[in-house]
Specification:
The complex is a heterotrimer.
Chain A lengths: L7 H21 L7 H20 L8 E3 L4 E3 L1 H22 L9 H19 L4 H19 L6 H32 L4 H10 L7 H18 L7 H8 L2 H26 L5 H23 L5 H20 L9 H37 L10 H4 L1 H15 L5 H14 L2 H30 L13 H19 L2 H15 L4
Antiparallel strand pairs in A: 1-2
Chain B lengths: L12 H28 L7 H4 L18 H18 L1 H10 L8 H25 L9
Chain C lengths: L10 H17 L6 H29 L9 H4 L1 E6 L4 E5 L3 H20 L7 H20 L3 H10 L1 H11 L4 H34 L8 H10 L5 E2 L2 E2 H14 L10 H8 L2 H26 L1 H28 L3 H21 L3 H32 L15 H15 L5 H15 L3 H9 L1 H16 L16 H19 L2 H23 L1
Antiparallel strand pairs in C: 1-2, 3-4
Helix pairs in contact in C: 1-2, 1-5, 2-4, 2-5, 2-21, 4-5, 4-12, 4-15, 4-20, 4-21, 5-6, 5-7, 5-12, 6-8, 7-8, 8-9, 8-10, 8-11, 10-12, 10-13, 11-12, 11-14, 12-13, 12-14, 12-15, 13-14, 13-19, 13-21, 14-15, 14-17, 15-16, 15-17, 15-20, 15-21, 16-19, 16-20, 17-18, 17-20
Classes of the chains: A mainly alpha, B mainly alpha, C mainly alpha.
């Protein structure tokens, strides 16, 4: 169902921007004693966005553009918007469980979450380099403040500052690259970039263009936590408030990948494909091993998830490395890589929130994020332990969970592409085992080790329902992925211009 | 001939002239003043009175580097914010005045609506400032 | 040929669906209602056992019939699952599959019964146990490479929890080692599976690829796997990924070290499933997927397997002699017996393969019995090293007797299914030209006798030990049921092996014929 007509490309953006304003108004006119209304308003907004994204937008419709091509709505954008809407809803649900620990500024917290979400919606359908930069910065600026939101804790301030300084550096990379791309093509739109490359008829593009592309990709690599732009990830993940970390892990990564995908689908062609494949293969290698190996010695859960998110970035990069050399399944390899990325982002969003929700609830009850304090959790709260275990196993890629199918799709797509892809496939397989090891170390603490403090951790009804729902979602996505795979594949095929 | 994305260099000549005139004027005035001072006042070039910022008006009571209420800064920042946002009204007004509906083809009504949206956001910001009590000077 | 369906699903689908539904049922039972959890598990597994018997009876009835009159093909069911990737829910059974489903249902039925005494986190225990067995059933009935791999991985993680939480002796190390070994094997096999899958697609050039095993076999017949791949024969290159990937769980020497340790650390029911069924997944996968898809690769690599399995037999047996812990003895003995299974496969003869599958069945039942018995007294003694035990047949005569039966079966005494199957393997090996291996295999029986007799004597005979006076024997029929059940299965198929060998025979003939053609051409 399409409820917005020609304004479909800005439907969610408008709704969430208005929603953010409404939340701020509610906050302004609510007395201090009733501040829980703010969370309720924010939840209502994201619930509407969720419904509008999943049921109010047409996935397989024609590509629509608005504002002279600045905004594009195609299958990929719709899929990503659905992922973001889901992540936004979960972020607000998590934030509501966290906000009692905020000393001030509930309204601002929710407002910033929603403004980041608005930025993510915009990111998923940008059509030119300028709106790409602006919408990306809307996301990043919101996160600067959110990460430092608990300014009474030094770690939180550190997180915000690191994000600010390194994020600005990354923004500079993006802008610098944009300037080069503009200089090389004389056009800021993706369509113009595509036309320019098509006009080369397979000849390699100019050095300026490749340099610009490299800079933009490196700048975006910051958002997705790609080696060598990953240094900020563990500190920020550890220091930022947990709902922010979860939203950052999901939203910032998905936003970065949305843009990388946009860019790659635009520029991938006969003249650029080999260098892109080489680049992404090398980056995926480095990112996979860095993230997963560095995760092994961690002792803090949020830091562990930070390093593991770098590892997951490596898996996602495998999907980009699937831009194969010419062969029978050439085009569909690239498309299947993109489809795998889209599916994986959705699965990753659900899984990450499943894990972070337990981290939030646990630290709310005990004030700790240390892995050793999780000892014996299965006796203190079977539900929390089971939910976290399911989420971790989904991250590790164990059937029958969503993460398994995502990894399966990524590894499948990369297996299509010759010797480099084969090497990457083996690397991915090795990293599945490494990942399983450190996730199981946490599972072991929860189930095998005796608790230090045996007091039970009660879980209230709505929270329990949320945990059950997330677990069920992981199972459904893992066992019945068909419909989602179809959506992702159609979107990716359309983006790469592959018929049928 | 398609329009080149980079304008020809001669467009910038007036700008260059402005820079040159401004710099030149400053240089001329400063050097004239120095020369004149050197020539006319041979002795007692430095004295406490002469070193004061203003050689007229009330005597200075305290050092200028004291602590001010943070409210001053906040008001100053808010002024800059709103000031800059209002700047955006000028290009809007130019386009609206031209009746230019070619880009995007959405018409003058849409342009007016956009302005209202923009002003709405500004109004929300103003409301936020007021409700948060930033402009209240009486409160502690 | 009308498909057999019950409520829309084939009985083979139900074999997976019932454990899955049982898992769900347990999930929504409150943790405090321990008896309800146990009863749900028992009900589900009894039902599955019934279906498994029905399938086996149909398979036995099919022997010698025309293709059109058979029942088993009518049980096949295929439902499209993910079209873009060519995944379909695709189940089917032949004699080999029917025998393995039967074995699994026997072991899990007995396993649920012997775990009745688990009191710590009962709900989680049964949840893991039944989830594991869901995966095992999935492997045995699946004819789609994706679901095969899915089920295979599904079976690994619950084992980690079972050993890690309810295990004993060095359980943290053992469970982690087991999980990492098996996962490494699985992902290695996945690489091989994907190679085969894409190769088939590139050759057949259908609009969508397919994980369907029949599609892969069709591609094989069309010659998709014959070409060289970057200077290497594709089959020879791809086969070891599957062989060693699946071989890790078989467990093929030198990838076996996780296995005795895992057996020793696991709780009884988990050991039973682990040694009885999980280890069979490896050999089964080699026979179900690796050999049919890549027969020429198999012919190239089987001599290597024939050498490695010698290490299994001798090394496993000799190490078992040196053990003091009863579970380690049975663990290393399993690794030794699996050597016979691999030898049967490596013989590439119908007799050998038939014997190998039959031995998988017999060993599964026997070793389940062994771990059930050890678990029974270990729950009370909390000790299972031979020097500490002794004379227990005075206090627990029923368990002692059952243990003697088990040892006789394991040592290959005629009258038990193990004897029949081991003899088939040895004859098969001789027939297949593995003469000196056959001789070594016969000699390998000697250490088996040594360690089993030592265990029986050390634990159950000798003077009465007052330390064990408080032990309670299995007295009620309900307590005795699992042991009697397993012993009678062993005796039934020991005296009447044709019940099973005829069923398995056609699968074995087919595989041997395939290998012979591949070797000849």
């Amino acid at each position: 169902m399409d409820i917005a007509g020609p304004f479909a490309p800005v439907l969610l953006e408008t709704l969430s921007a208005c929603g953010a304003g409404a939340v701020l108004l509610v906050d302004l006119f609510t007395p201090e004693a009733r501040k829980s209304r703010v969370g309720a308003a924010s939840l209502a907004v994201t619930a509407i966005l969720f419904l509008a994204a999943w049921f109010g937008m047409e996935a397989g419709g024609e590509t629509a553009t608005l504002f002279g091509g600045s905004l594009v709505l195609d299958g990929m954008a719709v899929f990503l918007k659905r992922t973001f809407a889901t992540a936004g809803l979960l972020a607000v649900l998590a934030a509501i469980r966290y906000e009692d620990r905020l000393p001030r500024g509930r309204g601002e917290f929710h407002f910033l979450l929603l403004s980041a979400l608005t930025g993510m919606f915009l990111v998923s359908s940008v059509g030119d380099l300028m709106s790409m930069f602006v919408s990306l910065e809307l996301v990043t600026l919101s996160f600067f403040i959110l990460a430092a939101f608990r300014r009474e804790r030094p770690e939180s301030v550190e997180a915000g500052l690191k994000l600010l300084v390194l994020g600005s550096l990354a923004a500079a990379f993006v802008l610098f690259g944009t300037a080069f791309l503009y200089g090389a093509t004389g056009d800021l739109t993706f369509a113009g970039l595509r036309d320019h490359l098509a006009s080369l008829r397979g000849a390699p593009p100019s050095r300026d263009l490749l340099l610009g592309l490299l800079f933009v990709l490196l700048g975006l690599g910051f958002k997705i936590g790609m080696v060598p732009m990953q240094v900020w990830v563990p500190d920020v993940y550890q220091g930022a408030p947990a709902p922010v970390t979860a939203f950052l892990a999901v939203g910032s990564k998905a936003a970065g990948f949305a843009l990388v995908l946009r860019l790659v689908t635009t520029v991938a062609g006969p003249g650029t494909k080999d260098s892109l494949q080489l680049l992404f293969t090398a980056l995926a290698f480095a990112t996979l091993f860095y993230g997963n190996l560095a995760a092994i010695p961690q002792t803090n859960v949020k830091r562990l998830l930070g390093y593991s998110s770098i590892g997951h970035c490596g898996y996602l990069l495998m999907g980009l490395a699937a831009l194969g050399p010419a062969s029978y399944y050439d085009e569909s390899a690239a498309a299947s890589g993109a489809a795998a990325i889209l599916f994986y982002l959705l699965a990753y969003a659900l899984t990450t929130f499943g894990a972070f929700l337990v981290v939030i609830l646990f630290s709310a009850a005990t004030g700790s994020d240390e892995m050793d304090d999780y000892a014996g959790l299965s006796r203190r709260s079977p539900l929390l332990a089971a939910s976290l275990t399911v989420a971790l196993l989904s991250l590790a890629g164990v059937p029958p969970l969503a993460g398994f199918f995502g990894k399966f799709m990524l590894m499948r797509s990369v297996a299509l592409t010759g010797p480099a892809g084969f090497g990457l496939l083996v690397a991915g397989a090795v990293n599945v085992v490494i990942g399983l090891y450190y996730y199981l170390c946490l599972v072991k603490r929860m189930y095998v080790h005796p608790p230090k403090d045996a007091s039970p951790l009660p879980v209230t009804g709505p929270t329990a329902a949320l945990l059950y729902a997330l677990t069920a979602a992981l199972l459904i996505l893992g066992i019945f992925p068909g419909a989602f795979v179809t959506l992702a594949s159609d979107a990716a095929r359309a983006a790469f211009g592959v018929g049928g | 001939m398609p329009e080149s994305p980079v304008p020809p260099p001669d467009v910038y000549v007036p700008l260059l002239l402005v820079v040159l005139i401004a710099g030149g004027l400053a240089a001329v005035l400063l050097s004239v003043s120095t020369v004149v001072t050197k020539l006319t006042m041979r002795r007692r070039l430095r004295s406490p009175t002469r070193n004061t910022p203003y050689e007229c008006g009330l005597p200075i009571l305290t050092d200028a580097r004291t602590r001010f209420s943070v409210k001053f800064y906040i008001v100053a920042m808010l002024f800059i914010l709103f000031d800059i946002e209002v700047v955006f009204l000028y290009p809007w007004a130019v386009i609206y005045g031209r009746g230019d509906s070619a880009r995007g083809g959405l018409g003058l009504g849409f342009l007016f609506l956009e302005l209202l949206v923009f002003l709405g956001i500004l109004f929300l910001g103003w409301l936020y400032v007021v409700r948060k009590g930033v402009l209240e000077w009486q409160a502690e | 040929m009308e498909p057999v369906r019950f409520l829309g699903l084939s009985p083979l689908s139900w074999v997976v669906a019932i454990p899955a539904l049982t898992t769900l049922g347990i999930l929504f039972t409150p943790s405090a209602a321990k008896n309800a959890v146990r009863r749900i598990a028992l009900a589900g597994m009894t039902l599955t056992f019934g279906i498994a018997i029905w399938i086996l009876v149909q398979a036995a009835g099919d022997v010698g019939l025309d293709a059109s009159a058979r029942v088993l093909p009518r049980l096949a069911q295929k439902v499209e699952w993910v079209r873009e990737l060519g995944i379909s829910w695709n189940v089917g059974a032949d004699g080999m599959g029917a025998a393995m489903v039967f074995l699994t249902s026997i072991v899990i039925f007995a396993g649920v019964l012997v775990s009745w005494s688990v009191e710590d986190r009962t709900k989680e225990f049964y949840l893991s146990l039944i989830a594991l067995v869901t995966g095992v059933f999935g492997v045995f009935v699946s004819r789609d490479l994706f679901w095969f791999y899915f089920s295979y991985e599904l079976a690994v993680i619950p084992m980690y929890l079972l050993i890690g939480i309810w295990g004993s002796t060095n359980k943290e190390y053992a469970s982690m080692k087991l999980t990492l070994y098996l996962t490494t094997g699985a992902v290695c096999a996945l690489v091989g599976l994907l190679m085969v899958y894409f190769r088939a697609w590139a050759f057949l050039k259908t609009p969508y690829p397919s994980f369907d095993l029949d599609y892969i076999l069709m591609a094989r017949d069309a010659g998709a796997f014959d070409a060289t791949w970057r200077g290497m024969d594709f089959q020879v290159f791809a086969f070891p990924f599957l062989l060693f990937g699946f071989g890790a769980i078989a467990p093929m020497w030198p990838l076996h070290t996780w296995s005795p340790m895992g057996h020793a650390a696991a709780p009884s029911a988990a050991s039973m499933l682990h040694a009885g069924v999980l280890m069979k997944l490896g050999s089964f996968a080699i026979l179900r997927i690796a050999v049919p898809a890549l027969p020429e690769g198999a012919v190239w690599w089987m001599p290597v397997v024939a050498v490695l399995c010698m290490f299994n037999i001798l090394y496993g047996g000799l190490v078992a002699i040196a053990q003091k812990d009863m579970k380690f003895i049975v663990g290393y003995s399993s690794s030794s017996h699996m050597g016979y299974v691999l030898l049967g496969i490596a013989s590439m003869t119908s007799l050998g393969i038939n014997g190998a599958i039959f031995l998988m069945f017999a060993h599964g039942v026997m070793t389940a019995l062994a771990f059930a018995l050890i678990g029974f007294f270990y729950d009370q003694t909390h000790v299972r090293t031979i020097p500490d035990l002794g004379g227990m047949s005075h206090q627990i005569p029923f368990i002692g007797t059952a243990f003697v039966f088990m040892s006789m079966a394991s040592a290959g005494v005629p009258g038990f299914a193990n004897f029949a199957s081991e003899v088939m393997v040895m004859f098969g090996a001789w027939q297949g030209g593995l003469k000196w291996q056959a001789v070594v295999a016969v000699l390998g029986i000697v250490p088996t006798g040594v360690y089993l007799l030592r265990a029986v004597k050390g634990a159950f005979f000798g003077p009465r030990n007052p330390r064990w006076d408080g032990l309670r024997d299995a007295v009620t029929p309900f307590q005795r049921l699992p042991f009697l059940f397993l012993i009678s299965v062993l005796l039934l198929f020991g005296f009447w092996p044709r019940l099973l060998t005829d069923v398995i025979g056609e699968s074995a003939d087919e595989l041997a014929g395939l290998l012979a053609r591949a070797g000849g051409g």
